[in-house]
Specification:
heterodimer, A: alpha/beta, 6-stranded mixed beta sheet, 11 helices, 11 strands, B: Rossmann fold, 4-stranded antiparallel beta sheet, 10 strands, 31% helix, globular
Chain lengths: 333, 290
């Protein structure tokens, strides 16, 4: 197992109480595998990636029963050891490339630095690798690009540079947090194709964090659906999309405009908004927005895996959930 | 055909061009043509979708429709009269807008009630009590509970803020609403709520919409007519059913292919194209006048 996370919890003390941002989530990624963590704003998906990288805000409190990368426990690692791992064995790609690119250094300097921080190689060798990777991510005249500054590149090109930079040390795992959200749709498609191809070529594990169900359905091997700090459903992409069992997953799939829906007609919106996660929280986090909520939902609901189903966090029997899915998504589900 | 062919044209753009002067370096000056010779007609009851990528000119175009930006050439007509012949106030009572970001478009110090009533106050409409009554009605119209009347924007979720923005836009009873990416800052579960609201309001108040978005599935769901923009030009203009059913333009086809609908295992579509190829800028065969 490349990355194994068990029972990860993130608490953030705030003026109005403790924010329970992530409440005991578990997932794993193997080499060559793509795990998509999907959810909406505030569900805890971005903090989860930061927790793995030990990049949480200082006041956040992280706990886990396992947080292991290639069999190595990350929990007790010193800051220096974590720094060596980060950018080397584990790389990260953020939504906004300018958060990771330094505006006052050239692309070339930054790429070369990344490699020389982690490997004993000459500038010349590091430069060659930078050129090789810029070419690999589809950037024309890579030699000339090395001398450019980040602001001289378009958003799409910057994100390509980010991908090339993430690959400098030949990482085993990439954590990508909404890597294409700010980009145009055609550029988004080009970059995601590129990411998939590179992942296959280099056999990396990929954790892709996104709110976009369409992208998840097309890229994921495994999917974890997060809502309000918890995983509410997990499984292979095929099971999640062909057999969604949690009312939230079903709701997400049903509320998207899509070519097969009746145009100019109401979409099946999920009513209400995400609950606050500050202070004591109990019961199913989704019950306030759920059409199937019942008194029993006021007690905490465990992620369970009944026979013939994948893990989901709902009191409804799988068969009832499947009936609901057919009702909300049509016969195709 | 969208069934609106016989409705009167309310807004028209005739050969509209808008250029901006860019300063690059000390002495080099370049002109950017953001909108390049665009003509279109908006009929009563239309929902005109404007779709395109960043830099395609869709926001510049919508700003010219609102009279917020003057064309460098060509003209914009409202009810057949030049937009410039309307004073700002008269224009505001006909056309209103909803912009993308509900987080920055509301005064954080105002109460929700005061924000919604603001256009009425500025236009000197009604007494204080009448304005408050109307603001409460509008809260209800956009599906917000009346207890939010005295709240501040900071206490509202993104979806609720966008409802406030819409309520404010409706205060002067405009008949045209220009919505620029009205849901792209929102979560998908909330996006559907806002789109449903826009559909309801259209029926209830007989509104005509311009909907600007990069999101093709939203455009497909919500519009009667679609203009596809690429590098400042409308490369295809057709009724929505036709455009999504059988587009002939190469750029439209690429846009359609790049939409990430749910398709387990389908992979990411190959949409690579030569952005320098002039063929993409050539408009599809001029439409037969409908």
């Amino acid at each position: 197992m490349l990355l194994d996370v068990q029972d990860l919890t993130i608490d953030i003390p705030t003026a109005s109480g403790v924010l329970h941002a992530v409440q005991g989530i578990s997932f794993s990624v193997d080499e060559g595998e793509t795990l998509c963590i999907v959810g909406e704003s505030g569900c805890g998906k971005s903090l989860t990636a930061l927790a793995v990288m030990d990049l949480l805000p200082r006041r956040a409190i992280r706990a886990a029963t396992s947080l292991a990368f290639s069999g190595r426990d990350l929990r007790g690692l010193s800051r220096e050891a974590m720094n060596r791992l980060r950018g080397d064995r584990i790389a990260m790609i953020f939504q906004e490339p300018m958060t990771s690119l330094n505006p006052v250094f050239t692309i070339g300097d930054q790429m070369i630095d990344v490699l020389r921080q982690h490997r004993k190689v000459s500038r010349r060798e590091a430069r060659d690798r930078a050129v090789y990777l810029l070419d690999k991510v589809g950037i024309s005249s890579p030699e000339a690009r090395l001398a450019q500054y980040p602001h001289q590149l378009s958003g799409g090109l910057r994100q390509r540079v980010m991908i090339a930079m993430a690959l400098m040390c030949d990482p085993k795992l990439i954590l990508a947090d909404e890597p294409t959200t700010a980009l145009d749709v055609t550029i988004q498609a080009e970059l995601l194709r590129l990411l998939m191809a590179l992942q296959q070529e280099f056999g990396m594990g990929l954790v892709l964090i996104t709110h976009d169900l369409g992208i998840v359905s097309r890229m994921a091997d495994k999917v974890a659906v997060m809502y309000a700090g918890q995983i509410v459903e997990s499984g292979t992409a095929e099971t999640i999309f062909n057999d969604p069992l949690h009312p939230y997953t079903q709701g997400l799939m049903a509320c998207l405009p899509a070519p097969e829906r009746q145009r100019m007609q109401h979409l099946k919106a999920i009513p209400g908004a995400v609950p606050a996660l500050v202070g004591a929280i109990e019961g199913c986090r989704f019950r306030g927005r759920c059409a199937h909520a019942q008194p029993v939902c006021e007690r905490d609901v465990a992620l369970r895996e009944p026979a013939g189903a994948h893990p989901y966090r709902c009191v409804l029997p799988a068969e009832t959930s499947r009936d609901n899915a057919r009702a909300v998504l049509g016969a195709g589900a | 055909m969208s069934g609106l062919e016989n409705h009167p044209v309310v807004l028209e753009m005739r050969d509209v061009t808008r250029t901006f002067r860019l300063s690059r370096g000390w002495l080099r000056r370049e002109m950017l043509t953001a909108v390049d010779n665009v003509s279109l007609q908006l009929r009563k009851g239309d929902v005109l979708g404007i779709v395109g990528e960043s830099g395609s000119g869709k926001t510049t175009l919508s700003k010219m429709m609102l009279g917020l930006l003057a064309p460098s050439a060509g003209e914009v007509l409202l009810d057949g009269k030049p937009l410039t012949s309307f004073d700002r106030r008269a224009l505001a009572r006909r056309i209103q807008f909803v912009f993308q970001d509900p987080y920055s478009s509301l005064n954080p110090r105002g109460s929700i009630g005061a924000i919604i009533a603001q256009p009425l106050r500025i236009h000197g409409i009604g007494t204080r009590a009448e304005r408050e009554k109307r603001a409460r009605e509008l809260l209800d119209v956009v599906g917000l509970p009346s207890r939010l009347f005295d709240s501040s924007p900071g206490q509202l979720s993104g979806g609720q803020r966008q409802r406030v923005v819409i309520a404010r836009a409706l205060a002067l009873r405009p008949d045209i609403l220009v919505c620029d990416e009205p849901t792209s800052a929102l979560d998908v579960s909330v996006q559907a709520q806002i789109l449903n609201l826009l559909l309801d309001l259209r029926k209830e108040f007989d509104l005509t919409y311009v909907l600007v978005s990069h999101n093709l599935t939203v455009i497909e769901h919500m519009t009667t007519e679609v203009a596809v923009m690429y590098l400042g030009r409308i490369v295809e203009l057709a009724d929505a059913e036709n455009l999504f059913g059988n587009s002939s333009h190469p750029y439209t086809k690429i846009l359609l292919r790049s939409a990430m609908t749910i398709a387990p295992g389908a992979g990411i579509p190959d949409v690579e194209f030569d952005r320098g190829d002039p063929a993409f800028r050539v408009p599809a065969a001029a439409r037969q006048s409908r």
